[in-house]
């Protein structure tokens, strides 16, 4: 049983985790960098330890310091939140070695799903549709040519450990193949120490639809419905909603069933997300996020299930007490991410002091934030400062409600995405649900 | 960087109440310290000279030795305290080892950055210390 939980994170997610722990009578231990001395998570936690200087590399990303903080505070468990070390298999293994409970999946699961080639193979074997392309590693230019003949042009060469746009090459014609193949390999080697690559057909127009799953170490798994996260800018989600109204009921049922299959195929224990690309022709497994996500709140507001609580129960080794039929989906939820960024200057991150603050409230409204009056946002970390969510009876009502909620919100002292998001919500193609992941690139809304 | 530009920078610093800045690029390096002349942009002439003087002196007098890593602080490299490396009243030299912090089972030396006399030891032998916490003050 977890009694003392160290939260290896900061910002709104640390605050979010503390709130559930209070309800569960778990003592929370915050860690912080010098820059975060006055952060809300430090003030709300039962105990707090300064572990390093401003730079993440010497604080929130320093495994030794975090584990020493566990020693010092006699924490019996760690919650990694999202970002930072949440998907680090090295960290996962070290936590095991120190005999501390990790609130998340096992090392084996993280290792399997973190490797994109192994993840694709696992999903293929579990009969979950994957993006057409190679099964397993493509070792030589010759093999790449054979795969190219099957999938056709254009296609994408991706590094197995790639991410953040690194180690990805689009191949439009045969003459580019050899050069791009070698570039993807060497970029994978350079940035991730892993030169293995694989091939996928190029999907241009698609929605990003993901399914929230929950699994226990006893082999039980359920889904908590899907979220549509197509409104993105450079792979950063800005608006998330649930359900995805572009799905017909048959496709939705099949998507949910495949997500549960996927969770079972990798022995998933904890809360996780299976990401899919949804096209006119069907949906395809993209990757799995083996951690809590920023937008888990969308599912929480829709279903009434506290996912952090479920994560802690799963980490305690309990059986899943929720049954699939217990999960009800009613209404429509929209989440807006308020970032301290300047949309008029290519969304450049902005730091500053909160000079005036009014966070919205109302029926079926939720705000997750670490802001308080006078808080100074340090310039070293993520720009997310608040998540505002509303639930309406349907999508159109939720859009109207979100607009009213954003109108009420005051965050002064630095530029935010607030007005930009309002413009998106008022924009006709958005209202008409005519959306793909390219939406914000095709429509200049700034 | 010419003299006009430096004047501009000084003006900017005064207007924003900045008393010290350092700038460096490939070609120039400048360091501006307005501490003794201006602390308040609104009324620079009324700042009492002795006030800035004392604050300057006090930082010189009370150097601290702060933890550069979190862990357990020790005054000697053994769990039993029999012969501490330093005691209150001892003279320490810059670069001298004054204790250890055990972090993840590794002993890390705590080194004084200043010459001085140990005025106070704030962390006891065997007590936890956070990053940045003051372990000792020197005079």
Please provide the ordered H/E string of secondary-structure elements of chain B.
HEEHEEEEEEEE
- Structural Rg of chain B: 21 Å
Biggest sheet architecture of chain A: 8 strands, antiparallel
> First CA to last CA of chain A: what distance?
49 Å
Instruction: List low-confidence stretches of chain A.
Output: none
Helix fraction of chain B by DSSP (H/I, runs of at least 4): 10-25%
Q: If you average the pLDDT of chain A, what whole number results?
A: 96
Measured by DSSP, the beta-strand proportion of chain B falls in 25-35%
Number of helices of chain B: 2
Oligomer: heterodimer
The unreliable regions of chain B are: 37-59
- Taking all Cα atoms into account, the compactness measure Rg of chain A is 22 Å
Which percent range describes the beta-strand content of chain A? 25-35%
Q: Estimate percent helicity of chain A.
A: 25-40%
Estimate the global geometry of chain B from the Cα principal axes: elongated
Enzyme class (chain A): ligase
InterPro entries (chain A): Acetyl_CoA_COase_biotin_COase (IPR004549), ATP-grasp (IPR011761), BC-like_N (IPR005481), Biotin_carboxylase_complex (IPR050856), Biotin_carboxylation_dom (IPR011764), Biotin_COase_C (IPR005482), CPAse_ATP-bd (IPR005479), PreATP-grasp_dom_sf (IPR016185)
Domain Biotin carboxylation (chain A): 1-445
Protein name (chain A): biotin carboxylase
Task: Please characterize this protein's 3D structure.
The complex is a heterodimer of chains A (446) and B (139). In chain A, helix 4 packs antiparallel against helix 5 (107-114) and helix 12 (395-408) runs antiparallel to helix 13 (418-425). The mean pLDDT of chain A is 96. Chain A is globular. Chain A has helices spanning 11-23, 40-44, 63-73, 89-97, 107-114, 116-125, 141-151, 177-192, 249-265, 296-303, 307-315, 395-408, 418-425, 428-431, 439-442, and strands at 4-7, 27-33, 47-52, 77-79, 101-102, 155-163, 166-171, 197-201, 207-215, 221-233, 236-242, 270-279, 282-289, 332-339, 341-342, 348-349, 352-353, 356-358, 365-369, 376-377, 384-392, 410-412. Chain A is α+β, with helices and mostly antiparallel strands and 446 residues long. By secondary structure, chain B is α+β, with helices and mostly antiparallel strands. Chain B has helices spanning 3-15, 49-61; strands at residues 20-24, 29-33, 63-66, 71-74, 91-92, 97-103, 106-111, 116-121, 128-129, 134-138. In chain B, strand 1 and strand 2 form a beta hairpin. In chain B, 19% of the residues are buried. Residues 37-59 of chain B have low confidence and may be disordered. Classes of the chains: A alpha+beta (446), B alpha+beta (139). The A-B interface holds A 34, 49-53, 59, 64-65, 67-69, 71-72 and B 69-72, 103-104, 128, 130-133.
């Amino acid at each position: 049983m977890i009694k003392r939980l160290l939260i290896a994170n900061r910002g709104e997610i640390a605050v979010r985790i503390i709130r559930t722990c209070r309800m569960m009578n778990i003592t929370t231990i915050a860690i912080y960098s010098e820059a975060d001395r006055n952060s809300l998570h430090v003030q709300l936690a039962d105990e707090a330890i300064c572990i390093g200087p401003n730079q993440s590399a010497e604080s929130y990303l320093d495994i030794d310091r975090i584990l020493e903080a566990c020693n010092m505070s006699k924490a019996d468990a760690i919650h990694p939140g999202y970002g930072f070390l949440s998907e680090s298999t090295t960290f996962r293994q070290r936590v095991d070695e120190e005999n501390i409970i990790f609130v998340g999946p096992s090392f084996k699961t993280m290792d399997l799903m973190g490797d994109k080639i192994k993840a694709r193979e696992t999903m293929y074997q579990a009969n979950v549709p994957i993006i057409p392309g190679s099964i397993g590693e493509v070792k030589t230019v010759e093999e790449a040519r054979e795969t190219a003949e099957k999938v056709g042009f254009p296609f994408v060469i991706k590094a197995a450990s790639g991410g953040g746009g690194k180690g990805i090459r689009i191949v439009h014609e045969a003459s580019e193949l050899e050069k791009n193949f070698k570039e993807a390999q060497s970029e994978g080697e350079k940035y991730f120490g892993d030169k293995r690559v694989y091939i996928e057909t190029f999907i241009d127009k698609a929605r990003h639809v993901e399914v929230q799953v929950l699994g226990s170490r006893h082999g039980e798994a359920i889904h908590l419905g899907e979220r549509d996260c197509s409104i993105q800018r450079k792979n950063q989600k800005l608006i998330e909603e649930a359900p995805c109204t572009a799905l017909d009921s048959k496709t939705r049922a099949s998507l949910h069933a495949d997500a549960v299959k996927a969770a079972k195929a990798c022995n998933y224990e904890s809360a996780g997300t299976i990401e899919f690309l949804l096209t006119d022709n069907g949906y395809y497994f993209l990757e799995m996020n083996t951690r809590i996500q920023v937008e888990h709140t969308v599912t929480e507001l829709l279903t009434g299930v506290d996912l952090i609580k479920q994560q802690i129960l799963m980490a305690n080794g309990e059986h899943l007490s929720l049954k699939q039929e217990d999960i009800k989906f009613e209404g429509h939820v929209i989440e807006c991410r308020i970032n301290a960024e300047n949309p008029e200057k290519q969304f450049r991150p902005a730091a500053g002091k909160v000079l005036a603050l009014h966070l919205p409230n109302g029926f079926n409204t939720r705000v997750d934030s670490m802001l308080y009056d006078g808080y100074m946002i340090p310039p070293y970390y993520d720009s997310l400062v608040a998540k505002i969510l509303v639930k309406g009876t349907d999508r159109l009502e939720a859009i109207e409600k979100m607009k009213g909620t954003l109108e009420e919100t005051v965050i002064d002292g630095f530029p935010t995405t607030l007005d930009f998001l309002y413009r998106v919500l008022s924009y006709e193609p958005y209202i008409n649900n005519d959306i793909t992941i390219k939406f914000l690139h095709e429509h200049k809304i700034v | 960087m010419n003299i006009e530009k430096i004047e501009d920078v000084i003006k900017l610093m005064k207007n924003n109440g900045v008393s010290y800045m350092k700038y460096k690029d490939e070609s120039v390096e400048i360091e501006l310290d307005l501490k003794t002349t201006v602390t308040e942009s609104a009324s620079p002439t009324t700042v009492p000279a002795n006030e800035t003087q004392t604050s300057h002196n006090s930082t010189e007098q009370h150097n601290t030795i702060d933890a550069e890593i979190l862990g357990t602080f020790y005054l000697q490299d053994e769990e039993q305290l029999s012969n501490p490396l330093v005691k209150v009243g001892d003279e320490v030299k810059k670069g001298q080892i004054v204790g250890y912090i055990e972090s993840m089972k590794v002993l890390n030396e705590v080194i004084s950055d200043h010459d001085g006399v140990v005025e106070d030891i704030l962390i006891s032998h065997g007590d936890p210390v956070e990053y940045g916490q003051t372990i000792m003050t020197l005079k």
